[in-house]
UniProtKB/TrEMBL annotation, chain A:
<keyword id="KW-0812">Transmembrane</keyword>
<keyword id="KW-1003">Cell membrane</keyword>
<dbReference type="InterPro" id="IPR001734">
    <property type="entry name" value="Na/solute_symporter"/>
</dbReference>
<protein>
    <submittedName>
        <fullName>Cation acetate symporter</fullName>
    </submittedName>
</protein>
<feature type="transmembrane region" description="Helical">
    <location>
        <begin position="326"/>
        <end position="353"/>
    </location>
</feature>
<dbReference type="InterPro" id="IPR018212">
    <property type="entry name" value="Na/solute_symporter_CS"/>
</dbReference>
<feature type="transmembrane region" description="Helical">
    <location>
        <begin position="152"/>
        <end position="172"/>
    </location>
</feature>
<feature type="transmembrane region" description="Helical">
    <location>
        <begin position="265"/>
        <end position="289"/>
    </location>
</feature>
<feature type="transmembrane region" description="Helical">
    <location>
        <begin position="43"/>
        <end position="64"/>
    </location>
</feature>
From TrEMBL, chain B:
<feature type="transmembrane region" description="Helical">
    <location>
        <begin position="28"/>
        <end position="49"/>
    </location>
</feature>
<keyword id="KW-0472">Membrane</keyword>
<dbReference type="Pfam" id="PF04341">
    <property type="entry name" value="DUF485"/>
</dbReference>
<keyword id="KW-1133">Transmembrane helix</keyword>
<keyword id="KW-0812">Transmembrane</keyword>
<protein>
    <recommendedName>
        <fullName>DUF485 domain-containing protein</fullName>
    </recommendedName>
</protein>
<dbReference type="InterPro" id="IPR007436">
    <property type="entry name" value="DUF485"/>
</dbReference>
<feature type="transmembrane region" description="Helical">
    <location>
        <begin position="64"/>
        <end position="85"/>
    </location>
</feature>
Length: 529, 99
């Protein structure tokens, strides 16, 4: 039944993809759906882009296994949208560019910046994407009882996502995200209503049941994170990283105006907030109704908590209702992964084609047809690379890849975006130092952190640390060190390189006028300049 | 909504509305951002350093930690609403700035 429902969802989304393909005639259509998506549609699509499998499956599992600490992720991921709303959404849309690199070059007037910004975009998207692809692989493999192993499931997801993006471009990707967001909200609301019904419509009763089963400690903080600095570092990466995530940024270019960009963030915040509040109900209910042992038997990281909860709520294992609930929620999770991966793929291939191919290799001289063709080729290439890296990483714990993507985005993209928008003296040297310094600091800290280094007992075969040696850097998330480092590198680069660039202040004035007023943006994305 | 197009390369038009827009918007962004960051980071800081407080039951079995976390969501929605209202002023000033 799971596969039947998943097949129906895939069939519907493929239908939309082919419908969209007939409306994709230019590179702008491909990248940003011609800037024609409405604010509510875009808001739902942002929510669809954001509520990834890590949120739906991951957080439910984290709360089910660790109680309150798991819910901290929900709060951080939601609050992150205030950073996006207040600081980046409207100015970015006002500047009318396709990519982060476009914006930086427009302000800093130095083509070298384009390459570094594009590399940063591709690095962040890749880490995020590998995690999603590997997650999809283990989900399918678990549900098929091992009949379809990750080695088959990962290419399957990869090929579907290539079809969505190559054939349908941003328009199809947006609609896949909208459908997925609606399905996910529907599933979550139905489950929450059923949970409340079971517990006398009282969150207090639900927590009471959790306490009875696990002890009072479970209702408070500290089950998972013993070191307070770990919590703060994670919070920093989540709250500051979102505003630098390429697949979130690219969504502001799909709407006609800055007002629409703002409205779409507000739409997204309503949906995402409601969803994350409900994770508190789902996670705690999974703990009580399914039980920690059953959840960890299905998947040690807790990823099966939400599907198993649906099974329990709809009548339990073996009943028709229970099997339907399991199948439906799994199919929704599958759609979730497809939609998120498609969004990431388009962000990465847009950056490659628009910034590296057109901007650097062809020095801005490519025709629309050439650009469009390369965009499709780049999508296939990005997809194939994601499949190969996904296959290589399939036995690794993938949670750190997502946190790493957030940390890199917060350490390299965010300082550069903020300084570009608000610091008059900021220059190209500062941007390059900020991007490179932020990424390298982040990667270096991760390489010596407990994500990579650690001593596993000899009998352990899955989820082993890559390097069997004690961790040098103690935190799982490097944000608390790497984010200030990214800012420091950007400042240092600017001060050291200041005398070399003339006219940066005038460029700032121009950029600021446009960012604040939207002058020069005329409905669609402005021509490349 | 269509915004009037400027000739590319023309110098930015400086008028009183634009000066007000930049000043007000910058002030608003800084105040709101600092406020929400301080309010948000109280949560992980308290969760890290004051576990007994977070585990204190406020009503029924609902702990202070959950109440605080749910209030963070309310804060997010309220601040977004404030921004939307305030943004109408910015839109008006932006339109004036381009005259």
């Amino acid at each position: 039944m799971t596969f039947l429902l998943a097949a129906v969802i895939v069939a519907i989304t493929l239908g939309i993809t082919f419908w969209a393909s007939r409306r994709n005639t230019s590179a702008s259509d491909f990248y940003v759906a011609g800037g024609r998506i409405s604010a509510p549609q875009n808001g739902i699509a942002i929510a669809g882009d954001y509520m990834s499998a890590a949120s739906f499956l991951g957080i439910t599992g984290l709360i089910a296994l660790n109680g309150y600490d798991g819910f901290m992720y929900s709060v951080g991921w939601f609050i992150a949208y205030l950073t996006v709303l207040f600081i980046v959404a409207e100015p970015l849309r006002n500047l009318g560019k396709y990519t982060l690199a476009d914006m930086l070059v427009y302000r800093l007037k130095d083509p070298r910046v384009r390459t570094y910004a594009a590399i940063s975009t591709i690095v962040v998207s890749s880490f995020y994407m590998i995690a999603q692809v590997v997650g999809a692989g283990s989900l399918i493999s678990l549900l098929s009882g091992g009949a379809i192993g990750p080695s088959l499931a990962i290419p399957l997801v990869g090929v579907l996502m290539i079809i969505y993006v190559v054939v349908g471009g941003m328009l199809a990707t947006t609609w896949v995200q909208i459908i997925k967001a609606v399905l996910l909200m529907f599933a979550t609301i139905v489950m929450t209503v059923l949970i409340l019904n079971r517990f006398g419509w009282s969150f207090s009763n639900l927590l009471g049941a959790v306490e009875q089963r696990n002890g009072a400690e479970f209702l408070g903080a500290g089950v998972k994170y013993k070191n307070p600095i770990d919590l703060i570092s994670l919070g920093l990466a989540l709250v500051l990283g979102t505003a630098g995530l390429p697949h979130i940024l690219v969504r502001f270019y799909t709407v006609p105006t800055a007002q629409d960009a703002r409205k779409s963030v507000v739409w997204a915040m309503v949906l995402i907030g409601a969803f994350y509040v409900m994770t508190a109900f789902m996670g705690n209910a999974a703990n009580v109704l399914v039980g920690k042992d059953t959840i960890t038997t299905a998947n040690a990281a807790g990823n099966m908590a939400a599907p198993l909860l649906a099974q329990a709520l709809f009548g339990g294992a073996g009943t028709v209702g229970g099997e339907f609930g399991l199948a439906f929620v799994t199919a929704v999770a599958f759609a979730t992964i497809l939609a998120v991966v498609a969004g990431l793929t388009i962000a990465a291939s847009t950056s490659f084609t628009h910034d590296i191919y057109k901007g650097v290799i062809r020095k801005g001289q490519a025709t629309e047809q050439q650009e469009f063709r390369v965009a499709r080729l780049a999508t296939v290439a990005v997809g194939v690379v994601a499949i190969l890296l996904g296959l290589a990483a399939q036995t690794q714990n993938v949670a750190f890849l997502v946190a790493l993507a957030f940390a890199i985005a917060a350490s390299s993209n965010l300082p550069v975006i903020l300084f570009t928008l608000f610091w008059r003296r900021f220059n190209a040297t500062g941007a390059i130092w900020g991007i490179v310094g932020g990424i390298l600091t982040c990667l270096a800290l991760i390489a010596v952190s407990p994500n990579i280094r650690g001593i596993d007992p000899p009998e352990k075969t899955t989820g082993r640390h890559l390097v069997q040696a004690p961790a040098i850097f103690p935190l799982e998330n490097p944000g608390i060190v790497s984010i200030p480092a990214g800012f420091a590198f950007a400042v240092l680069g600017t001060l050291l390189g200041a005398r070399r660039r003339e006219g940066t202040e005038q460029a700032f004035e121009e950029m600021q006028f446009r960012a604040y007023t939207g002058a020069g943006v005329d409905g669609t994305v402005a021509a490349h300049d | 909504m269509t915004v009037s197009r400027l000739q590319s390369g023309s110098p930015p038009v400086r008028n009183a509305a634009y000066a007000r827009l930049v000043a007000e918007r910058t002030r608003f962004t800084v105040i709101m951002t600092v406020t929400f960051l301080v309010l948000y980071f109280m949560l992980p800081i308290l969760a890290g350093y004051n576990k007994p407080l977070m585990a204190t039951k406020v009503f029924g079995n609902v702990t202070f930690g959950y109440v605080f976390a749910f209030l963070e969501f309310v804060m997010g929605w309220v601040m977004a609403a404030i921004y939307v209202v305030k943004a109408r002023t910015f839109d008006r000033l932006a339109a004036e700035a381009q005259r």
